[in-house]
């Protein structure tokens, strides 16, 4: 158990140009193959933290302190899958393009790899034969393409920025299961940003709860959920609406 | 029962309706291109349509009203007006198209650079466009046309200098908004080179809008060519041109008003055709 972490964030602080603090003194580390859930309300700095890891801070936001040490490459799965794809480029071409530039293989080989990735993501065969544009695919299919593109980078860490928020509930589940399966197969580490505590609980071994730019609680997922120390975490857990038939059983998270 | 359609229907398998289908449902594009094609066909085949030469004088039959022999009458030197009108379309339209090529390419390219890279690249390009915008358009056109000598060359040089601005401004705005979209950011982090993002992803996305602007801009350019001709610093007299025709006919406006009115109408006709095409293209691309 003495493996050194592949991602270490120490005292990361982000602020706007007018010095409004957005993320304050955030730190965590990630081991190989491990997954960390970042939960919290909108605007608590989860996505920003993720973007900082990727080096993709939006305009007007800068890092004011802290270090991000990462030994492996990372790739991101975005919240809005359609927005993460060029609307005027066939999806397979976009995927092959990333393979070409990241894996340094020939154009022909990159297409072959791209098709393998499609298969891995469980996308229909029709995509291989005809050029399809993002607008012709469903949200779930687009998200699978986005995941495939992220995987084409052979990332050591997969950064998921609410990958299921924009999707249907049933599709959400499929995407979650796909990501979980791929993680088992490929063994990448993962930082998973979500609003959804249930998803976080299912996907992640560690959980960090963020509020107003700070991590207020951090630890083993089950410990955090079963025995929340911070009143904010408590509130988050209570805000999950239980299904009616489960009401009163008190066994939501067992 | 009347069917009201707002959006193009999707095919059963979710494909977009075909491009032909969409063009067919855009009357402005159909009418506009038809008007333009008629003009082009006339301009191309005029030597076979008309028995006259555009600068062939016939002083015994000057200022004749429209007749079976001279469809639109003759001018003060007895030249056939219809023949001159269409030959003038050849000159003016070819200059119009040719003079837009360079400004369109530079404008789109500089606009993409400014919008995509931002920072100092943007500052420099915006500074340039704003400086040019601050001058009245025709002032620059007339000054440069004078400086570079009258004629076609002057028009080309003028528009190379000032024509790119309108494209740069539009494309810069578009590129800057695309840049904020996730797919551009994602392409950057995925390690695609900037040149490739600009040429393969940004360009197809900004091109439709740029082409729509091109259509409206060509109308402006045509009017500028005609204006220069009218002022006598455009196309040199023996070559037929709508501007010089309007100005030549001016002296006879009370007796033979059609000498000026007909080339004026030709300008309006071309302008409407191009605007309709631009409108139609915008419609088609918006529906996407």
UniProtKB/TrEMBL annotation, chain A:
<keyword id="KW-0547">Nucleotide-binding</keyword>
<feature type="domain" description="ABC transporter">
    <location>
        <begin position="7"/>
        <end position="237"/>
    </location>
</feature>
<keyword id="KW-1003">Cell membrane</keyword>
<dbReference type="InterPro" id="IPR003439">
    <property type="entry name" value="ABC_transporter-like_ATP-bd"/>
</dbReference>
<keyword id="KW-0472">Membrane</keyword>
<dbReference type="GO" id="GO:0016887">
    <property type="term" value="F:ATP hydrolysis activity"/>
</dbReference>
<dbReference type="InterPro" id="IPR050388">
    <property type="entry name" value="ABC_Ni/Peptide_Import"/>
</dbReference>
<dbReference type="GO" id="GO:0005524">
    <property type="term" value="F:ATP binding"/>
</dbReference>
<protein>
    <recommendedName>
        <fullName>ABC transporter domain-containing protein</fullName>
    </recommendedName>
</protein>
<dbReference type="InterPro" id="IPR027417">
    <property type="entry name" value="P-loop_NTPase"/>
</dbReference>
<keyword id="KW-0067">ATP-binding</keyword>
<comment type="similarity">
    <text>Belongs to the ABC transporter superfamily.</text>
</comment>
<dbReference type="GO" id="GO:0005886">
    <property type="term" value="C:plasma membrane"/>
</dbReference>
<keyword id="KW-0813">Transport</keyword>
<dbReference type="Pfam" id="PF00005">
    <property type="entry name" value="ABC_tran"/>
</dbReference>
<dbReference type="InterPro" id="IPR003593">
    <property type="entry name" value="AAA+_ATPase"/>
</dbReference>
<dbReference type="InterPro" id="IPR017871">
    <property type="entry name" value="ABC_transporter-like_CS"/>
</dbReference>
């Amino acid at each position: 158990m003495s493996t050194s972490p592949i991602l270490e964030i120490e005292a990361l602080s982000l602020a706007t140009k007018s010095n409004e603090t957005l993320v304050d003194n955030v730190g965590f580390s990630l081991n190989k193959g491990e997954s960390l859930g970042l939960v919290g309300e909108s605007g608590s700095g989860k996505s920003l933290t993720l973007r900082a890891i990727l080096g993709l801070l939006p305009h007007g936001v800068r890092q004011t302190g802290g270090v991000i040490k990462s030994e492996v490459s990372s790739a991101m799965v975005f919240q809005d899958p359609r927005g993460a794809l060029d609307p005027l480029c066939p999806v397979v071409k976009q995927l092959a393009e990333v393979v070409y530039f990241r894996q340094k293989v020939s154009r022909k080989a990159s297409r072959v790899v791209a098709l393998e990735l499609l298969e891995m993501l469980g996308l229909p065969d029709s995509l291989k034969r005809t050029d399809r544009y993002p607008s012709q695919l469903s949200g779930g299919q687009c998200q699978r393409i986005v995941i495939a593109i992220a995987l084409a980078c052979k990332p050591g860490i997969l950064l998921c920025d609410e990958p299921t928020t924009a999707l249907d509930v049933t599709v959400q589940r499929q995407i979650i299961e796909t990501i979980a399966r791929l993680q088992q197969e490929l063994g990448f580490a993962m930082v998973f940003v979500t609003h959804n505590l249930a998803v976080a609980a299912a996907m992640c071994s560690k959980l960090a709860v963020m509020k107003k730019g700070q991590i207020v609680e951090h630890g083993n997922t089950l410990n955090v959920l079963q025995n929340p120390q911070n009143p904010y975490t408590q509130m988050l857990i209570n805000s999950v609406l239980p299904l009616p038939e489960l009401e009163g059983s008190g066994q939501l998270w067992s | 029962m009347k069917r009201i359609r707002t959006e193009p229907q999707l095919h059963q398998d979710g494909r977009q309706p075909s491009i032909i289908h969409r063009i067919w449902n855009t009357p402005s594009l159909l009418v506009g291109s038809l008007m333009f094609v008629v003009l082009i066909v006339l301009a191309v085949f005029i030597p076979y349509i008309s028995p006259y030469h555009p600068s062939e004088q016939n002083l015994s039959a000057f200022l004749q009203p429209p007749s079976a022999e001279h469809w639109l009458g003759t001018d003060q030197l007895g030249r056939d007006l219809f023949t001159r009108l269409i030959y003038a379309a050849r000159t003016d339209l070819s200059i119009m198209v040719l003079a837009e090529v360079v400004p369109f390419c530079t404008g789109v390219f500089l606009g993409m650079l400014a919008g995509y890279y931002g920072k100092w690249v943007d500052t420099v390009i915006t500074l340039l466009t704003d400086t040019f915008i601050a001058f009245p358009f025709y002032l620059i056109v007339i000054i440069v046309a004078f400086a570079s000598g009258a004629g076609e060359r002057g028009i080309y040089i003028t528009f190379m200098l000032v024509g790119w601005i309108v494209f740069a401004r539009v494309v810069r705005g578009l590129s800057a908004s695309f840049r904020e979209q996730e797919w551009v950011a994602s392409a950057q982090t995925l390690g695609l080179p900037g040149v490739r993002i600009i040429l393969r992803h940004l360009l197809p996305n900004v091109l439709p809008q740029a082409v729509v602007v091109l259509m409206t801009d060509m109308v402006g350019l045509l009017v500028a060519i005609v204006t220069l001709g009218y002022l006598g610093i455009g196309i040199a007299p023996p070559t037929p041109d709508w501007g010089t025709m309007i100005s030549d006919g001016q002296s006879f406006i009370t007796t033979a008003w059609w000498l000026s009115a007909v080339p004026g109408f030709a300008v309006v006709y071309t302008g409407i055709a191009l605007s309709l095409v631009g409108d139609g293209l915008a419609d088609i691309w918006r529906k996407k």
